Amino acid sequence: MTNLEIVTFEDLEATDVISVELVPERKGLILKHCEYYVSSRRHGTTVTRRYNEFVQLCDVFCAKYPYRAVSRLPPKRVVVGGGSPVFLQRRRAALQRWLTLVARHPVLAHDADLRTFLCESSSRLDKPKHDEFVLAGTQDESTSQISIDEMQAAFVSEQEQLRLVQLGLNRLYKIFERVGGRCEAERADIREVGAALSALAAAPAAEPPAWLAVRQAIKTAADLATTMGESSIEEVDYEYGAGAKILLALDALGAYKDLCGRLTRGLHGERAAAAAAQAHSAAASLLRKRHRFALVCCLEESRVARAYALAALESLQEPLRTHGIAHSRIATLWADLHSTLTYTHTNNKTK
Questions:
Q1: In this predicted model, what pLDDT tens digit does every residue of 76-107 receive, in sequence order?
Q2: What gap in Å lies between CA 126 and CA 197, rounded to an integer?
Q3: Which of 123, 194, 239, 309 is the most exposed place for a label (fewest CB within 10 A)?
Q4: How far apart are CA 141 and CA 82, in angstroms?
Q5: What is the pLDDT of residue 288?
Q6: Pick from 110, 111, 36: which is nearest to 73 by CA?
Q7: Per mean pLDDT, which range of 163-177, 183-197, 224-238, 290-304 is the poorest?
Q8: Radius of gyration, alpha carbons of the chain
Q9: How many CB atoms within 10 Å of residue 189?
Q10: Cβ of 18: how many Cβ atoms within 10 Å?
Q11: C-alpha neighbours within 13 Å on the C-beta side of residue 265
């Protein structure tokens, strides 16, 4: 498929940088809703949008571009009393990834409705009456040297390869999440150790000399544990750092998987309809052209998904390094606690 353009992550990233931030004050008396500041570096604009406006834009794209990979929006949830800060931040980050994928897409980035969403104060959009195939007047025969059977074979191959990449990246992401959770749990345990040692150190003043020495050692260890448990430890950045590339790739690969599912169902129907129609009829010719157009689109989408996947794979070293450093520091904290208690206890025995 050498006639299809190679897509790189750097090319996509250069298209636009999107920022989606929560508006601090939420609206509504009981069922509060959130608004977002949406900024585009490409257009130099910042507008305010609600979740429902993201849904509207997504619906427009799904109707206008049935042969393009449009990722899923994060699910809506009724926000009573403002909602959980964790949920709101995760949804904000997911909306930012969704809009980033759209704003960097080789085709969708140039859509007039996207520009309206990013630039106009009011983003009311009407669903298109025709899809991309009709709107583009797709009579382009630039890929005519490639047969439909060849494209179909490439489609099946790309689908399977990217399916395996998605499975692997998703598995790694879940592992990284568990590893990060264990690191935070270790820090919480150290804080608990500090609290428990502090309670033990708060003994009555009248005590034998041996108890005084042990109590002093415990107090020193308690102070150390409290300080260490509250100290910051570098974590994997799943918003702007290397971790963000993994989530962005998973969203892109998920959208590609959904597209392949739609096309697998739809292309068989179109092919059957074209075969059933008279070979030289206008309807059969249109179906064949639509079939070819769908395959070309899907192969183009596979290049985009591969670009995001490659960027994620190239960034894997960073989360591995970060997790390694974090757990190394946790191990050092436990060793320091051990040294504090052991050293004082040994001195006490030798006197």
A1: 875 555 567 888 888 999 999 999 999 999 99
A2: 65
A3: 239
A4: 54
A5: 83
A6: 36
A7: 224-238
A8: 28
A9: 14
A10: 21
A11: 6
